[in-house]
C-alpha cells in the first residue's frame, strides 16, 4: 500500500478511524486515471482504483450492508458501519448487457462480511460483449471519506490483498444505524395463482396488484417460469409475459408476507369491470384521436399487415429513406452529465414530478369529460412513471456520470427491448406508452435544464423520413431541408400550416397516417408515395427500386418544366394565367423567382415572424417587406396582414383561450383586441418603396363594412406618412359570407383572393387540421366550387380580378376548373410554379369554361375529381 499522506504513515490498516478495503477481484491493479471510461478516470464518481479481473468472482471488500444492487447485476454498492459507500462496478458499460453474464449472490439490504461472494460473473461473456473488463472500486461519498492509502502496481487477490484505506474527512466516522434491517428476519410465503383475466398479467391488473401491497411490510416477487419481477415494477411484471391461463408464483418475504401475498392474489383473481378484454391501448398523445376514417370516401386507413399505412397527401412526391422520429430527435441528451451525480439525480426527480403533475391534469380532464378509458391510460402512465425498474436503472446510470436525460432514455429503451422479446401484441402497445413517457420526461428535462433544441441535437441522417404526431410550423422552420426527404404525420390535415410549409419546401408529406405510425421502429427503411398517401414500412427490394425509379422520373418531368418556367403561362388558346407564389420568408421569395413565379400571390406574414418573442416593430415590418420586394426584382407582392389565431400560433402572442378558435379572433378580427399589431404592420407596409411593389391583402373579411373601415385606416396612415400613390387593397375570400357578398366587397376592393383552405373548412364545417376529416375536407367539393363561381361573378361586376391562393390552386386536378371559372391568378408554393405553368399550357380555356359548370352539378368532391381526371388527364 502506498501512503497518500505523510500524516498517515505508520497508521496500521484497520486501526480505529480508518477503513480497510480488500481487493474484491483478483487481477492487476489499474490506476483510476487509466480506467477506460472518463466517468471513472476523471473521478466524477469519486476516488478509487481499478482492477483488471482475471476471475469471475466479486467478493465483498469489507463488512457492510448491500445498499444497492444494480438490477442488471453488474454493480453493487456497500455501506460500511462507518457510513462509507463503496461501489464496485464490473467492467465498462456493462449495464448495456442487461444482466447477461451476471449472477448476483446477495440481495439488496443484505448484511455481508469481508470476503463474501457478492456477484458471480462470466468473464468470457463480459470480455466479449463489453468495451472493457476493467472494474472500479470507488468511494461514492468521497465528499465524506477520503482515500489515504491505495495498493500499488501489481496483482491483487480477491478477499485478501489490501486495496484501499479510507478515512472520514472530518475525522469522525459516522455510524449508521441498522436501517434496512427490519426486513432481514424474513418469513417466506409462496402462493400459486392462475390468471383468468383476458390478456393475463397486463398493465391494469399489474398496477392494481402493486397498489394492493402498498403500506404492507413485505416484499413480493412474482415468478413465471425462469423469469421473476418485483411487484413494484409494472414494467417488470409485464415483461414476465404471463398471459391468460398462465400460473404464476407469488413469493412474499418479510413480517407481513402472508398478508401481502394474499392481497396480490386477490387482486389478480378479481375480474375488474371493463378489463375482461383489455383493449390494446393507443399510442398516447395529449389529445388522442381515433384512427383515420376508413370509409370509401376517405382513403385514410391502416394496413399494417401489408406493411403499408395510408394517409392523406399533404405534399406530393416520392421518397425512400430511413424513418427518424422527430419527437425523439428533438432532444438528444448529452451522454455525460455536466455536474455531479446528485445534481443530475435531482434534475431527473424534478422532471418526473413535472410529468406526473401533467399526467394528473390529463387524468382529471379526461375524467371530467367522462372519457374513462382515456383517463385510465393516463393513470397507467403515472404508474409506469414511478416504476422502480425504470427509475433505478436511470439512477444507476446517473451514478456512473451519465446525464439525467441520457440515463432516462437508456432506461426506457432497455425496458422497451425487454417487452419486445415477449411475443404479445399488447406489450407492443405498452412499448408505445413507454416511448411516450420517454419523450415527456426528456421534454420536461430540457425545459428545466434549458438543454432543449440545440442545433447539434438535431443531427439527421441523409434521406431522413421524419415522423411525428404532427409537425408544428416552428418544427419545420428549423429543419435541415437537405437531409429531410419526406415528412410523415400521424395526425394533421392537408391544409394545415405544416402541410403548406412542406409543399413550399417541395418535401413530400403525408398526414393522418394514424397512431400506427408510432409503431414503426426508428431507422426502418420506408418508401413514401405521398401522392397516393402511402407509407410502405416493410418495402421489398422491388418496392424500393420502383420508388427510386419513380422519383427519378418525376425529377425528369420537373426538370423539363423548369426549363420553361420563366416564361409567362397561357392556355393553348391564348388565355393568360398569372402563376404566382405563396411565400413566408425572404428565402422563399428567392425560390419563387428561381422557379419562375410571375409575382407573389400571398406572403403569409404571420409565418415570417413566428419565432419572435416580441411583435415586430414598424421598422422591422418595413425592412422585411422591402427586402422581399427587392428580391422579387420588380414582380409585385401581395402581402397579407397578420393572420394569427386558430391553427396559426406565434410565440409573441398568447391569445386568451377560446372555445372555438377557428371561429374566434382570427385574421383582421385580432385588431379588435390588439389594434396596435395591425396598425404597426400597416404603417410598415406603407413605408415600402416603391409603394406599387406591394398590394395589401386582408384575411378573414366577412363583409364590406370591415373592408371599408380598414381601407379608411390604410388611407389615413398613408396620408400621415405622406404617401401620394394609392396602395392596392384586396380581400381574402375564405369565409362563405365573403364569397356570397363578393359583389359588395369588389366594389371597394382592388382584387379578391380565394383562400380555399379556410373556405373549404368553413363551407363544409370540417376542421382543416382534423385528421379524420382530412380526406373529406376537399376544396373540389361542388359547394366550394360554387362559392368560387359566385365570387368570380361578383367581382366581374366591378371589373375586378380574382385569384386563388389556397392549396387548391396548386392541385393539378383543380387547375382546369379554376381556369374555367374565370380565375386569372393561381398562387402556389414556389416549387410548384413550373408544374402549374406546364399544366396551364396544356389546357384549352374555352373547353374549360364549357365543361366546368357540368362539374359543378356533380354531387361530391370525389365525382368532381374523377370527372376532372377524365377530361384533363394528368401526366
Ligand atoms: C386559405 O385559407 O386558403 C389561405 C390561403 O390562408 P391560410 O392557409 O394561411 O389560412
Ligand atoms: Mg386562410
Automatic annotation (TrEMBL):
- What GO cellular-component annotations does this UniProt entry give? cytoplasm
- Report keywords, A-Z: Cytoplasm, Kinase, Magnesium, Metal-binding, Phosphotransferase system, Sugar transport, Transferase, Transport
- Its chief place of residence is cytoplasm
Q: Which GO terms describe its biological process?
A: phosphoenolpyruvate-dependent sugar phosphotransferase system
Presence of the UniProt keyword DNA repair in the record: no
A GO term for molecular function:
metal ion binding
Pfam families, from UniProt? PEP-utilisers_N, PEP-utilizers, PEP-utilizers_C, PTS-HPr, PTS_EIIA_1
In short, the EC number is 2.7.3.9
Q: Which residues form the HPr domain?
A: 188-276
Q: Which family does it belong to?
A: Belongs to the PEP-utilizing enzyme family.
Q: Which PANTHER family match?
A: PHOSPHOENOLPYRUVATE-PROTEIN PHOSPHOTRANSFERASE (PTHR46244)
This chain belongs to which protein, by name? phosphoenolpyruvate--protein phosphotransferase
Amino acid at each position: 500500500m502506498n501512503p497518500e499522506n505523510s500524516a498517515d504513515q505508520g497508521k496500521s490498516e484497520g486501526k480505529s478511524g480508518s477503513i480497510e478495503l480488500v481487493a474484491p477481484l483478483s487481477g492487476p491493479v489499474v490506476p483510476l486515471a487509466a480506467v477506460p471510461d472518463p466517468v471513472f478516470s476523471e473521478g466524477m464518481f469519486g476516488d478509487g482504483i481499478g482492477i483488471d479481473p482475471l476471475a469471475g468472482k466479486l467478493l465483498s471488500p469489507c463488512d457492510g450492508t448491500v445498499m444497492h444492487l444494480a438490477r442488471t447485476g453488474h454493480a453493487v454498492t456497500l455501506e460500511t458501519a462507518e457510513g462509507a459507500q463503496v461501489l464496485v462496478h464490473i467492467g465498462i458499460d456493462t449495464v448495456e448487457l442487461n444482466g447477461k453474464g451476471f449472477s448476483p449472490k446477495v440481495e439488496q439490504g443484505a448484511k455481508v462480511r469481508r470476503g463474501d461472494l457478492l456477484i458471480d460473473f462470466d468473464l468470457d461473456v463480459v470480455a466479449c460483449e463489453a468495451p472493457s473488463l476493467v472494474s472500479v472500486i470507488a468511494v461514492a461519498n468521497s465528499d465524506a471519506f477520503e482515500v489515504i492509502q491505495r495498493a500499488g502496481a501489481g496483482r491483487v487477490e480477491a478477499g485478501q490483498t489490501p486495496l484501499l484505506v479510507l478515512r472520514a474527512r472530518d475525522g469522525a466516522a459516522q455510524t449508521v444505524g441498522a436501517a434496512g434491517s427490519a426486513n432481514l428476519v424474513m418469513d417466506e410465503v409462496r402462493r400459486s395463482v392462475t390468471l383468468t383475466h383476458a390478456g393475463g398479467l397486463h398493465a391494469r391488473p399489474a398496477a392494481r396488484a402493486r397498489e394492493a401491497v402498498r403500506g404492507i411490510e413485505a416484499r413480493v416477487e412474482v415468478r413465471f417460469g425462469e423469469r421473476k419481477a418485483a411487484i413494484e415494477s409494472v414494467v417488470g411484471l409485464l415483461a414476465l409475459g404471463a398471459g391468460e391461463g398462465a400460473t404464476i408464483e407469488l413469493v412474499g418475504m418479510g413480517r407481513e408476507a402472508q398478508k401481502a401475498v394474499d392481497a396480490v392474489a386477490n387482486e389478480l383473481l378479481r375480474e375488474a369491470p371493463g378489463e375482461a378484454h383489455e383493449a390494446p391501448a393507443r399510442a398516447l398523445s395529449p389529445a388522442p384521436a381515433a384512427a383515420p376514417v376508413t370509409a370509401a370516401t376517405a382513403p385514410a386507413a391502416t394496413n399494417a399487415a401489408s406493411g403499408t399505412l395510408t394517409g392523406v397527401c399533404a405534399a406530393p412526391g416520392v421518397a425512400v429513406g430511413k424513418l427518424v422520429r422527430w419527437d425523439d430527435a428533438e432532444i438528444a441528451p448529452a451522454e455525460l452529465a455536466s455536474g455531479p451525480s446528485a445534481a443530475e439525480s435531482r434534475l431527473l426527480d424534478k422532471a418526473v414530478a413535472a410529468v406526473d403533475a401533467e399526467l394528473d391534469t390529463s387524468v382529471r380532464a379526461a375524467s371530467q369529460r367522462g372519457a374513462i378509458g382515456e383517463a385510465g391510460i393516463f393513470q397507467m402512465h403515472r404508474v409506469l412513471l414511478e416504476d422502480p425498474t425504470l427509475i433505478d436503472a436511470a439512477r444507476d446510470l446517473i451514478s456512473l456520470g451519465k446525464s439525467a436525460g441520457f440515463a432516462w432514455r437508456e432506461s426506457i429503451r432497455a425496458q422497451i427491448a425487454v417487452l419486445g422479446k415477449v411475443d404479445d401484441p399488447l406489450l407492443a402497445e405498452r412499448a408505445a406508452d413507454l416511448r411516450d413517457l420517454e419523450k415527456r420526461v426528456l421534454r420536461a428535462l430540457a425545459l428545466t435544464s434549458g438543454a432543449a433544441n440545440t442545433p447539434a441535437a438535431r443531427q439527421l441522417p441523409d434521406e431522413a423520413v421524419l415522423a411525428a404526431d404532427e409537425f408544428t410550423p416552428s418544427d419545420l422552420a428549423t429543419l435541415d431541408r437537405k437531409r429531410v426527404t419526406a415528412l410523415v404525420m400521424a395526425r394533421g390535415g392537408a391544409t394545415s400550416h405544416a402541410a403548406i410549409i412542406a409543399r413550399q419546401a417541395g418535401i413530400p408529406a403525408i398526414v393522418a397516417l394514424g397512431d400506427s405510425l408510432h409503431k414503426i421502429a426508428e431507422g426502418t427503411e420506408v418508401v413514401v408515395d405521398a401522392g397516393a398517401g402511402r407509407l410502405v414500412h416493410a418495402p421489398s427490394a422491388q418496392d424500393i427500386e420502383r420508388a427510386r425509379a419513380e422519383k427519378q422520373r418525376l425529377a425528369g418531368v420537373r426538370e423539363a418544366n423548369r426549363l420553361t418556367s420563366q416564361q409567362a403561362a397561357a392556355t393553348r388558346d391564348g388565355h393568360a394565367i398569372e402563376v404566382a407564389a405563396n411565400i413566408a420568408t425572404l428565402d422563399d421569395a428567392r425560390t419563387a423567382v428561381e422557379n419562375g413565379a410571375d409575382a407573389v400571390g400571398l406572403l403569409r406574414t404571420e409565418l415570417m415572424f413566428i419565432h419572435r418573442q416580441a411583435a415586430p416593430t414598424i421598422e422591422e415590418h418595413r425592412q422585411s417587406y422591402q427586402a422581399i420586394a427587392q428580391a422579387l426584382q420588380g414582380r409585385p407582392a401581395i402581402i397579407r396582414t397578420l393572420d394569427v389565431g386558430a391553427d396559426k400560433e406565434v410565440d409573441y402572442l398568447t391569445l386568451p383561450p377560446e372555445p372555438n378558435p377557428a371561429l374566434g379572433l382570427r385574421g383582421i378580427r385580432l385588431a379588435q383586441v390588439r389594434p396596435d399589431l395591425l396598425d404597426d404592420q400597416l404603417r410598415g407596409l406603407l413605408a415600402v418603396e416603391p409603394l406599387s411593389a406591394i398590394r395589401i391583402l386582408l384575411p378573414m373579411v366577412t363583409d364590406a363594412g370591415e373592408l371599408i373601415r380598414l381601407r379608411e385606416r390604410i388611407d389615413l396612415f398613408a396620408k400621415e406618412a405622406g404617401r401620394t400613390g394609392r396602395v392596392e387593397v384586396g380581400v381574402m375570400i375564405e369565409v362563405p359570407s365573403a364569397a356570397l357578398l363578393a359583389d359588395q366587397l369588389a366594389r371597394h376592393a382592388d382584387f379578391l383572393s380565394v383562400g380555399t383552405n379556410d373556405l373549404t373548412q368553413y363551407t363544409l364545417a370540417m376542421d382543416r387540421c382534423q385528421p379524420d376529416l382530412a380526406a373529406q375536407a376537399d376544396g373540389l367539393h361542388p359547394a366550394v366550387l360554387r362559392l368560387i363561381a359566385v365570387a368570380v361573378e361578383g367581382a366581374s361586376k366591378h371589373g375586378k380580378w380574382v385569384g386563388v391562393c389556397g392549396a387548391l390552386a396548386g392541385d393539378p386536378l383543380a387547375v382546369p376548373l379554376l381556369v374555367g371559372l374565370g380565375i386569372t391568378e393561381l398562387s402556389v408554393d414556389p416549387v410548384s410554379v413550373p408544374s402549374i405553368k406546364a399544366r396551364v399550357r396544356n389546357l384549352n380555356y374555352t373547353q374549360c369554361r364549357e365543361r366546368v359548370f357540368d362539374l359543378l352539378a356533380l354531387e361530391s368532391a370525389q365525382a368532381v375529381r374523377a370527372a376532372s381526371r377524365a377530361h384533363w388527364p394528368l401526366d
